[in-house]
Specification:
Oligomer: single chain
Bound molecules: L-MYO-inositol-1-phosphate
Strand order of the largest sheet: 3-4-5-6-7-8-9
Number of strands: 14
Helix content: 25-40%
Distance between the termini: 39 Å
Number of domains: 2
CATH superfamily of the largest domain: Fructose-1,6-Bisphosphatase, subunit A, domain 1
Structural class: alpha+beta
CATH class of the largest domain: Alpha Beta
Order of helices and strands: HEEHEEHEEEEEEHEHEHEEH
Largest sheet: 7 strands, mixed
CATH topology of the largest domain: Fructose-1,6-Bisphosphatase, Chain A, domain 1
Strand content: 25-35%
CATH architecture of the largest domain: 2-Layer Sandwich
Shape: globular
């Protein structure tokens, strides 16, 4: 296991890079959406600029590091000794539509083990961080998942908009989640939904298809906050670069979701 001091140095470098990149997001103008796999899967010059900045700064902090990123098909070896998993702007559709609810997400792993994570929401100046075995924090203050039953919480749902074959199942799941909880929310950023669970704001988050960069950082933050983060069927997440469903919540809400909501 890497020395704690070295992990803390790497996390500090991630945070510094995200804060520098946040200025790009906050001062963006003339945002033009380009379609990738479909009209709902968009990218902007800012996604690319933020990713390039993060790669530059993290390469300076960790020479020889490898990267697995959403944009530009930068998919290096997931078993690398030093690897950063980057979603430069998670919630790009929100960014394009100026919904002011997106984040910059970076996770760090070594030989396939997730060790550090930071998710920065520049619109509300919130920084979620975690180190493996060190707990989860919001702006430096410890956070914990909500221990309440699902029925006493709000559930964040993703609509897997890049995979319309899942639309029917997604909305059936959302109706079941609504009936089993206080209410549902579709906020548009998987990583911020995961952080909402970690902070005890949302009781659960579920989505039927997201990518590794949409959940890697949030997974560590949720689990270090005492939560569970699995596939929707309860099996372990793949962490192999393939798309996957995700279910994140506190232990009681997770059991309730699997019993009352899962299809
Ligand atoms: C998005 C997620 C969102 C999900 C979308 C997409 P992006 O990430 O945050 O929850 O529904 O399919 O994956 O593409 O904006 O970085």
């Amino acid at each position: 296991m890497m020395e704690k001091s070295e992990l803390e140095r790497i996390l500090a470098a991630i945070v510094a890079a995200e804060k520098e990149a946040a200025e790009l997001v906050l001062h963006a103008h003339g945002i033009l959406a380009e379609c990738k796999s479909g009209h709902r899967d968009v990218v902007t010059e800012y996604d690319r600029r933020v990713q390039e900045l993060l790669i530059r700064r993290l390469s300076e902090a960790c020479p020889g590091a490898r990267f697995f990123c959403e944009e530009n098909d930068r998919h290096d070896d997931l078993q690398a000794e030093h690897l950063f998993i980057i979603d430069p702007i998670d919630g790009t559709m929100n960014f394009v539509r100026r919904m002011n609810h997106s984040c910059i997400s970076v996770a760090y792993q070594s030989r396939g083990e997730l060790l550090a994570a930071a998710v920065c929401n520049p619109y509300v100046d919130e920084l979620f961080t975690a180190l493996k075995g060190g707990g989860a924090f919001l702006n430096g203050r410890p956070i914990q998942v909500d221990p309440a039953p699902l029925s006493e919480t709000i559930v964040c749902c993703g609509t897997a908009p890049y995979n319309e074959a899942l639309t029917g199942r997604t909305f059936a799941l959302m109706e079941r989640a609504y009936r089993a909880s206080l209410d549902i929310r579709r906020q548009g950023s998987a990583e911020l939904d995961l952080c909402s669970v970690a902070a005890g704001r949302a009781g659960a988050y579920c989505e039927l298809s997201i990518s590794l960069w949409d959940y890697a950082a949030g997974y560590l933050i949720v689990t270090e906050a005492g939560g569970l983060c699995t596939r929707e069927d309860g099996s372990p997440l793949p962490f192999d670069g393939s798309k996957t469903s995700v279910l994140a919540s506190g232990p009681q809400a997770w059991a309730d979701f699997r019993e009352q909501v899962s299809l």
